[in-house]
Specification:
Blueprint lengths: L1 H6 L4 E5 L10 H7 L3 H4 L10 H5 L2 H12 L2 E8 L5 E12 L5 E10 L1 H23 L3 E6 L10 H7 L3 H4 L10 H5 L2 H12 L1 E9 L5 E12 L5 E10 L1 H51 L6 H27 L8 E3 L1 H7 L1 H6 L6 E5 L7 E3 L1 H18 L5 E11 L10 E10 L6 H6 L17 H11 L3 E6 L5 E8 L16 E5 L3 H13 L3 E5 L2 H10 L5 E5 L7 H11 L4 E6 L12 E4 L4 H11 L1
Helix pairs in contact: 11-12, 12-17, 15-17, 19-20
Length: 615
């Protein structure tokens, strides 16, 4: 045994006396400690310890623990004869005789510096990797258990998802998905694909701690041990919301450019055709003028009249086409649109049925914009008429104005700046996305054959483009439509039309359009400033905004609000307003006390007589 031990070179195996002095020495001890047997036997084994360990009493503690517990085992730095240090694995066993008396210690030491260096290199590598992962802030990098629970969390995950580590450790990663994706089983599907294929990659919406969403690029890799068993997943998430928004903006810009180029091409073609067609119409109308003196029989003159009407309709059509093509002669001038719309209100009201509520919601005084007033009024009337056609009885049409500060490219290709916005909103049938995409194309219409030319909205589009603006349609089927016109603010002062001499105002109310128009002409002949309404409800709206109405002339029998009820409410709103009621019935329903009554049919002389009676 002594011979066997003395020849071992990979281990230092030697005996210590009870006081710790070296009693024997083998070849292995000599090999990696550097001492010959005669140099070390009789010396205390503490000389192999570092000065730090000796000062801390480590050698004495090792012998005490071996004596008390039966064994001491540890690793630590030891010192060779030449002063160099090595990392040692040490085992000290007490040796006792048959009576149990301690006779010494058996000490086995092994140089494991290479093993420790490898372990230290691995630890440093792992620490560097941990620091690398923790230092990454652009990516959320974390581990999942095989069932999807979060097991660690890096700084990037905290920055992107806003959760602290202690808030998410042990919770399931599905908490970052939207409710819709969780209901569809997407988190489980992601882990299943990563397990079966080794990798899962996708993009989608994820949810931060504060409830906001971001567009994420996600990679999940499965992790297996040496035995091939799944031990978890590595998950990397990146917030690419800005990239997605940039891609969407680019796609939108491409769509706008394509639409603009398409409409520009259609406009050039349309303008050329309309111009040539106008020349042909000129020949036809001039020829008809030359034929009229020659043709004597009534039938021939009737044919010439019909041909002339058709030619004029053709001329109106070409004018609409030229407006779309932005080739219509215009005389733009700075105008305050609230005043323009208010002055055109009565015409707009005539464009709606009495069963459809029409209202204006005009902002405070607006900055001026450059427009041709006649073209603008025609375009606005087109929008109101279209809204009326799309709106069922009991619905509403609303014309609004406001000023808006736009970012560049938010509405078509309009540059950043201030714009006056005129909107026509209805509660009608709405449009699908496919219809919206084609709505401003010439001759495109969803109306029944013979009900429309398909040029109304294209004419509006051409008008607003001609003055440096743009048009936006917002609509959904069965939820109504809003068409907004954007006009760039002009730096000039708005033109004010000369104020006409003050005239008495009369508000004429009748649900029969032909009767309403005739009554309006009669009162204009008498020198009145005429306002018209097709229902009692419309009349009340006008009276609430126009307190200086001198005379209310209303039919008695109307749906909804009768003339008598209207007269009473009008007196409450404006006690100075005189009330004159008319009816085809000899004895109208309702009390006429306080009102003058005029039986239908009536003449101007009858009206004058009642006006004198009212004073």
């Amino acid at each position: 045994m002594r011979l066997f031990i003395s020849r071992i070179t990979d281990y230092a195996i030697y005996m210590l006396a009870p006081d710790g002095t070296v009693a024997s020495w083998n070849a292995g001890a000599e090999r990696f400690k550097g001492y010959a047997a005669d140099e070390i036997i009789g010396q205390h084994f503490s000389r192999f310890y570092t000065a730090r360990d000796r000062a801390a009493g480590i050698p004495e503690k090792a012998l005490r623990l071996a004596r008390e517990t039966g064994k001491f085992e540890a690793e630590g730095w030891r010192v060779r004869k030449d002063g160099t240090e090595f990392w040692a694995s040490v085992v000290i066993d007490p040796i006792r005789d048959e009576s149990g008396e301690l006779v010494g210690f058996a000490k086995i030491t092994r140089d494991i510096s290479d093993k420790r260096a490898a372990q230290e290199a691995l630890r440093e590598s792992e620490e560097r990797f941990r620091m690398l992962v923790q230092g990454v802030t652009d990516y959320a990098i974390y581990m999942l258990s095989p069932t999807g629970e979060i097991t660690n969390w890096n700084a990037g995950a905290h920055r992107i998802k806003q959760y602290e580590q202690e808030e998410v450790l042990g919770t399931h990663f599905s908490r970052f998905y939207t409710e819709e994706d969780r209901a569809a089983g997407k988190p489980a599907n992601a882990l299943a694909e990563a397990t079966s294929r080794g990798r899962f990659e996708a993009e989608g919406w994820r949810v931060r701690k504060d409830g906001t969403k971001f567009w994420a690029h996600v990679v999940i890799d499965s992790i297996h041990n040496d035995a091939g068993e799944l031990i978890g997943f590595a998950k990397i998430t990146r917030d690419i919301t800005e990239r997605q928004q940039a891609a969407q903006a680019l796609e939108k810009a491409r769509e706008i450019l394509f639409q603009s180029q398409k409409l520009e091409a259609i406009g050039k073609l349309t303008g050329g055709v309309a111009h040539d067609f106008n020349n042909l119409l000129s020949v036809i109308t001039n020829g008809l003028d030359l034929l009229r003196p020659i043709v004597k029989d009534p039938e021939g003159l009737g044919l010439i009249g019909s041909m002339e009407k058709a030619a004029m309709r053709g001329a109106s059509l070409t004018n609409q086409l030229l407006t779309f093509a932005r080739q219509q002669p215009v005389t733009p001038e700075p105008r305050e649109l609230n005043r323009v719309i208010a002055g055109f209100e009565s015409v707009l009201r005539r464009g709606t049925r009495s069963s459809v509520k029409f209202e204006l919601a005009l902002a405070g005084e607006l900055p001026a914009v450059q427009i041709d007033m006649a073209l603008f009024e025609t375009a606005l009337l087109n929008l109101v008429v279209n809204a009326n056609d799309a709106t069922l009885d009991g619905g509403s049409i609303r014309v609004t104005t406001h000023v808006e500060e736009l970012e560049g490219g938010r509405i078509g290709v309009l540059p950043a700046g201030r714009y006056v916005v005129v909107s026509v909103q209805d509660t009608g049938s709405g449009m699908s996305e496919e219809v919206i995409a084609r709505a401003i194309e010439p001759f495109f219409t969803t109306k029944a054959p013979g009900k429309g030319t398909g040029l109304g909205l294209s004419q509006v589009y051409g008008m607003v483009q001609q003055f440096g603006g743009d048009l936006r349609i917002t609509s959904q089927p069965a939820q109504g439509t809003t068409i907004a016109l954007y006009f760039p603010v002009s730096g000039e002062e708005a033109v004010r039309d000369p104020e006409p001499p003050p005239r008495d105002k009369v508000l004429i109310v009748d649900d029969q359009p032909d009767v309403l128009d005739m009554a309006a002409e009669m009162f204009r002949t008498l020198g009145f400033d005429v306002i018209t309404a097709a229902s009692g409800r419309q009349a009340l709206e006008i009276l609430s905004r126009t307190p200086d109405v001198h005379l209310l002339f209303s039919d008695v029998v109307m749906p909804g609000l009768s003339g008598v009820e209207l007269g009473k409410k009008a007196q409450e709103l404006s006690p100075r307003t005189r009330i004159l009621l008319a009816s085809g019935y000899t004895t109208p329903a309702g009390s006429l006390k306080g009102f003058e009554f005029l039986a239908k049919p009536y003449r101007i002389a009858d009206i004058l007589k009642k006006l004198r009676a009212l004073g």
